[in-house]
Each structure stands twice: as structure tokens, then as C-alpha cells.
């Protein structure tokens, strides 16, 4: 049996404002719009990683605990992503080393700006359905 490479685990935070819009970032590395987030570091808890990644990419500190709204597997990249609906408690949106732009987006704008695999994460978080969504994608499209 061939040796399979391990999966990585990432987190993403969907910050929702008072009007129901979600904060999206445009990544510097690929120009894609998506919620802020990234891969967990060794020895880091899921909440700590979520708070760190959102702060690094947006300048916003979020309240913990945040609400898990979905689990997503990139079948191509072997990444399992945990997505949370978040509440901002401090800071203002700013770009940084990993973020070239930020934008508060409505549901319709999310589907226009982001690839389907990332837009659905934001829409699931806006809906905050219970139980959380569990979905698979190929990095761009749901499968």
C-alpha cells in the first residue's frame, strides 16, 4: 500500500458585522477572496490558531469561544478546515503581509467574489445552522 501524505488542519473565521455582512480577505499569494485563516501550528490549540490567524490577516481580535459552522475537506490538497462564525471585539480591518485587500461582503457579493469552495464556508457561517455543515471540495468546486 503506498504511503499517503498526512492531512493538514486549518481554521478560518467568518467575522459578521451588525448588518449581516462577512469580512473577506484577498490573499496576496493567489489573489483569491476568502475568509481569514490558516494552518494550525504544532502545539497550538484550535481557538488559539483561529484568534492568531484572524488577527494576523485582518488586524481584528475576535471573541472566544467562536461557533463552529462547518468542516470542509479539500480532497485535492488534503486539508481539513474548521470554519467558525466570529465576533469582532477589538481592532479595525487592515491589510498585512498575507492580505492585499479586505471587504465587507453581502451574501450575493460573497458568491461573486469567492470560489464556490470558499463562498460556501462563508454562507454556512452566515446561516449558522446546527449541526455544522460537513462538505468536500476539490479546492475550487464542491464535490
Automatic annotation (TrEMBL):
Boundaries of every Nudix hydrolase domain copy: 6-127
Q: Which residues form a coiled coil?
A: none
Which InterPro entries does the record associate with it?
A: Nudix_hydrolase (IPR020476), NUDIX_hydrolase-like_dom_sf (IPR015797), NUDIX_hydrolase_CS (IPR020084), NUDIX_hydrolase_dom (IPR000086)
Sorted alphabetically, which keywords does the UniProt record give?
Answer: Hydrolase
A matching Pfam family: NUDIX
The molecular function terms of the Gene Ontology recorded here are: hydrolase activity
Q: Does the keyword Lipid metabolism apply?
A: no
User: Which CDD domains does UniProt cross-reference here?
Assistant: NUDIX_Hydrolase
Q: Which PANTHER family match?
A: ADP-RIBOSE PYROPHOSPHATASE, DIHYDRONEOPTERIN TRIPHOSPHATE DIPHOSPHATASE
Identify its protein family: Belongs to the Nudix hydrolase family.
Record protein name field: ADP-ribose pyrophosphatase YjhB, NUDIX family
Q: Which organism is it from?
A: Actinacidiphila guanduensis
